[in-house]
Every structure is written in structure tokens, then in C-alpha cells.
């Protein structure tokens, strides 16, 4: 199966040995996004809400570069520094997703890259 690397300057450049996203067939695997501003490559840390918005904006840019929309996202994995942020994740997600919502898992983890409070990865399935 052919793999296509997805890249956009509207999302942060990869800061390690990974791609922003990889398309295999009609499935797009979107790497975990943290609240990095793509222009400055600085962490957005004004508030948890600001971090979550930046994460989903970054993801949206990658989704668009892959030829999809948030409606095409089938699965999200959300990593949080603390489950106390879970209600805010739901509030922010409602700005980007409509029903039917994607499948989702959310975990609190010990530490995230650059000590941010949220990282989100996604799997998107595009129409044939």
C-alpha cells in the first residue's frame, strides 16, 4: 500500500522523527498535536482553553491539507495532564465537531511533550 505524507505550513512543523500525518489508502493518521503556534513554534499557554483551541486549530489545518474535514474524523485520542480538564475538552470539541461525533478515548498521563496540558491525535477516513 502506498503511503502519502501530509504536510502543511499552517500547522506546527514536526519536532521529532514523525510526520504531521500519513495517508494510507483512504485513512489518514494524524500525529499528536500539542498547542504550538505554527508561526512562532512557541507554546500557547494562556489557559487550558487556549491550549485546546490551538490543538484543534492545528489539527484542522492538517485535516484540510489531507483533503478532509472534521466530519471525516473517525477516532480521537486525547491525552491530558489532568482529568480536571476533561469538561473543557468537551466544550472546545463542540466548536469543531457535530454529531455524529467521532469515537474517542481520553487519558490523563504523567507528562506531555514540552509540559503542555493537552495532546490530541486522530484517525480520519476520507471518501473513496
Describe this structure in words.
A 6-stranded mixed β-sheet has the order 1-2-3-6-4-5, with helices on one face. It has helices at residues 48-65, 86-96, and strands at residues 3-6, 21-24, 27-33, 73-80, 103-108, 118-125. Strand 4, helix 2 (86-96) and strand 5 form a beta-alpha-beta unit. The longest helix has 18 residues, at 48-65. Helix content is 23%, strand content 29%. The protein has one domain (3-125): RutC-like (60s Ribosomal Protein L30, Chain: A).
Question: What would you say about this model in short?
Answer:
By secondary structure, the chain is α+β, with helices and mostly antiparallel strands. 23% of the residues lie in helices and 29% in strands. It has a single domain, classed as 2-Layer Sandwich (60s Ribosomal Protein L30, Chain: A).
List key phrases describing it.
alpha+beta; 128 residues; single chain; 60s Ribosomal Protein L30, Chain: A; globular
- Rg measurement, Å: 14 Å
Reported by name, the CATH topology is 60s Ribosomal Protein L30, Chain: A
Described by strand count, sense and barrel closure, the largest sheet is: 6 strands, mixed
* Beta-strand content estimate: 25-35%
N→C terminal distance = 15 Å
| Poorly predicted segments | none
Class of secondary structure makeup: alpha+beta
The total count of strands amounts to 6
> What's the level 1 CATH class?
Alpha Beta
Tell me the helix content.
10-25%
The count of domains is 1
What is the CATH superfamily? Answer: RutC-like
What's the overall average pLDDT, rounded? 96
Tally the helices: what do you get? 2
**Strand order in the sheet with the most strands:** 1-2-3-6-4-5
What is the element string, with H for helices and E for strands? EEEHEHEE
Broad shape: globular
Which CATH architecture is right?
2-Layer Sandwich
